[in-house]
Amino acid sequence: RRSKLFQLCVQAALRHLSLQIPGRGRAVGAVLGRRARVGKLLRKVTGRAVGRYRAMGIQMVISLSFTAVAIVGMVFMGMSLFLRFSTTTYELMEDNSQRVLAQVNMNLDGYLRRMMRVSDTLYYRIIKNTDLEEGSLESGMSLLYEENRESIVSIAVFDEKGRLVSAAPLSELKPDAELRDSGWFQAAIKKMENFHFSTPHVQNLFQEQDARYRWVVSLSSQVQLTRGGATETGVLLVDMSFGGIEQICRDVQLSNGGYLYLIDGSGELIYHPRQQLIYAGLLEEDRKSTRLHSRH
């Protein structure tokens, strides 16, 4: 009502102006007529849009509601499937890792038992049946070495004072070799009827013609030597090639970029895929937590 009244007032004013200023009144009236037509067209379009919205309002609300419910349901289902798939994948990876570790443990156990059988064979069939005053251990030791040369670097027997009794295939000790202070020697002297494994180290007892620095794991045990009918304490040393252990562990493929490494009961590193970096101090491994986990 106010707009109509305003329009009537404007039209009356224009008529009054047109009576006073004929030319300017006609121009102003033309402009206002155009604006009135545009306004009428806008009101017509707006009215049609509002009518269609009112007619389709319920359908639109229902459609939007169903769409929102469908989207929420799809998101919830997708998250559920993702979590379930992730859990299943993790369980499969863990089960596969356990199987791989069990196989590695079996292979290592077989390898170490074979080395212990070599040591037992040497002791019970050669050393115990030989009197050092009458015979030598060299032929028997050389034969046993040839049968296991792919896994063994050297075999040696020492008396309790650290003097070399017999060795194969290397027989010349290095001048600076300190046998009695070695961990494998002390462990064998202190504990009878036990096998003692050392951590990997470079073979540093015997001189080699090709000057190779081979990594070995020493297997030592206390033995009883016979000399002139009397028995005396000695130490049997079997230097196993570290390559055997490395090959068993190196070929292991764990899922999700995992890797395998070995430590002994005191946390000393036996094998690691980046062992050289660890020895050089460029890499560290959390061996303490590994020890705690292995005890549980």
Distance between the termini: 90 Å
Q: Looking at the structure, what is the overall shape?
A: rod-shaped
Report helical residue fraction.
Answer: 55-70%
Order of helices and strands: HHHEEHEEEEHEEHH
Number of separate strands: 8
Major sheet: size, sense and barrel closure? 6 strands, antiparallel
- Mean pLDDT over the full residue set: 78
| SSE class | alpha+beta
Report the C-alpha radius of gyration, rounded.
47 Å
Q: How many DSSP H or I helices? A: 7
Q: Which blocks of ≥5 consecutive residues have pLDDT under 50?
A: 17-25, 291-296
- Quote the beta fraction: 15-25%
What are its keywords?
296 residues, alpha+beta, six-stranded antiparallel beta sheet, two-stranded antiparallel ribbon, 7 helices, 8 strands, 56% helix, disordered C terminus
Strand and helix map with partners:
Blueprint: H1 2-20, H2 22-127, H3 138-147, E1 152-159, E2 164-168, H4 183-190, E3 196-197, E4 201-202, E5 215-227, E6 230-241, H5 242-250, E7 262-263, E8 269-271, H6 275-279, H7 287-295
Helix pairs in contact: 1-2, 2-5
Protein architecture, described:
The protein has helices spanning 2-20, 22-127, 138-147, 183-190, 242-250, 275-279, 287-295, and strands at 152-159, 164-168, 196-197, 201-202, 215-227, 230-241, 262-263, 269-271. The radius of gyration is 47 Å and the shape is rod-shaped. Helix 1 crosses helix 2 and helix 2 (22-127) runs antiparallel to helix 5 (242-250). Strands 1, 2, 3, 4, 5 and 6 form a six-stranded antiparallel beta sheet that branches. Helices cover 56% and strands 16% of the residues. The protein is of the alpha+beta class and 296 residues long. Strand 7 and strand 8 form a beta hairpin.
